[in-house]
Write a structure and sequence with these properties.
- It is a single chain.
- This protein is α/β, with parallel strands linked by helices.
- The protein has one domain: Glucose-6-phosphate isomerase like protein, domain 1 (Rossmann fold, 3-Layer(aba) Sandwich).
- Helices cover about 65% and strands about 10% of the residues.
- The chain is rod-shaped, with a radius of gyration of 52 Å.
């Protein structure tokens, strides 16, 4: 976390408080001494309070929540609005509208009205059909709403905390946040009441350098929270991707194991069938062999009888052929 040096606080005039006659006795624990009718703020208390506020702010932003910047005094408007826009946080730097938090439904209606006016004026076809006087009135209304609510256009819900410069000037914001239980981080000068603030930072809330230094310190803590949130998201996405890959691998391994089990079961089933069929096959072979042997025994006498019957006929035919042959030879001679 970005640390603010003691010398930086001194150079920025953070230690200068108000005139002693304007002090709030409840700021006594944060006052170091009185000099030339002016209270001097204890910068050790400022540093410790700033560190606590930075840690709280970092945790809020890291969880994805919004913190609203509130600073309507002139010397704080520029630096606070720039830092809020850089961090994409809601901010109020012109005037705190009563009910900005407690009557947020009405504020949302005003924001919707502003967006409708902007849409109508940006559409050339619609703008041409509007009278010049009416168009000028709409433009003035848009500018007014932009000035008052331009910093909270992107705020879709109530902020999780408020960062306030000069709690005495922004007493309405403090009252509304207290009523809703929204934590407050604020710069408290010697004329302020720190008891209404959750994280008071005792400091000069009138000097531009003091406001700029402490606002930037809070902004750096928010930036670190945003970066850590981004890193957490990346790690979470990576973990989810690894878990998904692991699940796919496990499923694939389970499918392979099932396939192997099915193949083994099929092989066992085939072996069992072969084993069960072996006696039947042997019995069939033996039966066939017996049948063949029986047939051979039955056929052998028949074949012998046929051969004995056919043999004289064959001899007679041979003799007849021999006689015919001799007769033909004698005729030729």
């Amino acid at each position: 976390m970005a640390q603010v040096e003691y010398k930086e606080l001194l150079d920025a005039g953070v230690h200068f408080g108000h005139l002693t006659r304007k002090w709030d006795p409840r700021m006594a624990p944060y006052i170091f001494m009185e000099k030339n009718g002016i209270h001097v703020i204890d910068l050790n208390k400022t540093l410790s309070s700033l560190e606590q506020a930075q840690a709280f702010v970092k945790g809020i932003v890291r969880s994805g929540k919004k913190i609203m910047f509130v600073a309507t005094k002139k010397q704080a408007q520029e630096i606070v609005s720039e830092e809020a826009r850089r961090l994409k946080m809601p901010y109020v730097t012109d005037r705190w509208l009563g009910g900005m938090l407690t009557n947020y439904a009405t504020i949302k209606k005003s924001l919707k009205k502003m967006s409708n006016i902007e849409r109508m004026l940006s559409d050339e076809a619609t703008a041409k059909n509007i009278a010049k006087r009416e168009r000028l009135m709409m433009e003035r209304e848009r500018i007014k709403l932009e000035r008052l609510l331009g910093g909270v256009v992107e705020m879709s819900r109530l902020p999780s905390a408020l960062f306030i410069v000069d709690v005495k000037r922004e007493h309405l914001a403090v009252a509304e946040a207290t009523r809703l239980g929204i934590p407050i981080i604020a710069l408290c000068d010697t004329n302020s009441n720190p008891e209404t603030i959750d994280y008071p930072i005792p400091a000069n809330d009138d000097a531009y350098k003091s406001i700029s230094l402490l606002t930037l310190a809070i902004g750096k803590a928010m930036e670190e929270g945003i970066m850590e949130r981004k890193q957490d998201k990346e790690e979470q996405a990576q973990a989810e991707a690894e878990a998904a890959k692991r699940a796919v691998d496990e499923k694939r391994a389970a499918d392979d194991a099932k396939a192997e089990a099915r193949a083994a079961a099929k092989a066992e089933k085939a072996a069992a069938k072969e084993e069960a069929a072996a006696p039947v096959v042997e019995a069939v072979k033996e039966t066939v062999a017996e049948v063949v042997e029986t047939v051979e025994e039955v056929v052998a006498p028949v074949v012998e009888a046929v051969e004995e019957t056919v043999a004289p006929v064959v001899e007679a035919v041979k003799e007849a052929v021999a006689e015919v042959t001799e007769t033909k030879e004698d005729e030729k001679a």
